[in-house]
Amino acid sequence: ALPEKKMVFKGLVTNKEDMNKLIVTPLIRYPLPGGSALITFEKAEVAQRIIEMKEHVVELSCGEELEELDRCSVRVQAAPVDILLPSALEIGLTRSNRSILVSDLPSLGICEEVLLDKLELFFSKTKNGGGEVESTEFLDDAGQVVLTFAQDGVAEPLIARGHMQVLIGKGKYKLKISPCMSGDITNLQLQPSRCPRTVLLAGIPDVLGEELMRDTLEIHFQKASRGGGEVDALAYVPAGRHGVAVFMEDAG
After folding, report:
1. Beta bridge partners of residue 138, listed in sequence order
2. Which part of the chain is the NID domain (predicted)?
3. How many CA atoms are closer than 13 Å to the CA of 76, on its beta-carbon side?
4. Could you give the CA distance from residue 166 to residue 105 in angstroms, rounded to a whole number?
5. Contact status, residue 32 vs residue 9, Cβ threshold 8 Å
């Protein structure tokens, strides 16, 4: 049994031959226990060097010149970050015969419920080519609306038109009408992948404030004399708390 994985699926049509292709962009949520940090370097070789050193002594003097007896340090362990990425994906698609997808919606500054009511009112009228609307749903991630009619035979003529001038409030707007597709993942295969530029630091004691500890870790690991390098990002979770790091596709 695999843990639940949240992903973002993006379709990109370039020509007719590519219409059945799907681009998958992973969006991985990685749990972080208390007393740990994720540090991402600009260069992969720096991360690899930090991992190979395994244990690091981090000075807590924050760069101040202190006597030897007044200095304080902590030991933290460095480890690689391994995540699961999809290697194969199969989706079963179903086209609804009673639903339409309405897109190209204008930005009118009205709330979601009001917009849905206006669309339902317009598409429920037979003179507009519609019929009784059974349900409406706003898709937050896409800014689109799914309208489902109570009867068969209403959706197809609207889809065939492609676009419609829809009255919303006091204005008319050209909206795109598309078929509504739903899908279920029928097969998903995952493979382990190691983040090349990110390192997990564990065993960090709760001896400094959150911001001060974050700054101290960044100062330590960006110094070449300690095996480090330029830091791209750093996330720290104090002991007694839990966090979630989100990994996205590395555009660099």
Report:
1. 145
2. 37-135, 145-232
3. 28
4. 10
5. no
Confidence band of 112 (pLDDT split at 50, 70, 90):
confident
DSSP category for residue 34: T
Q: Are 165 and 123 in contact (CB under 8 A)?
A: no
Query: Do residue 83 and residue 194 come from a single domain?
Result: yes
CB 222, CB 230: distance < 8 Å = yes
CA 232, CA 201: separation in Å to the nearest integer?
A: 15
Instruction: Select from 186, 207, 232 the last residue of a domain.
Output: 186
Count how many domains the chain has: 2
> Any bridge partners for residue 190, and if so which?
86
Query: What is the C-alpha separation between 243 and 237, in angstroms, rounded?
Result: 6
Structural domain of residue 214, as residue ranges? 28-62+69-87+189-248
Domain boundary among 145, 168, 186: 186
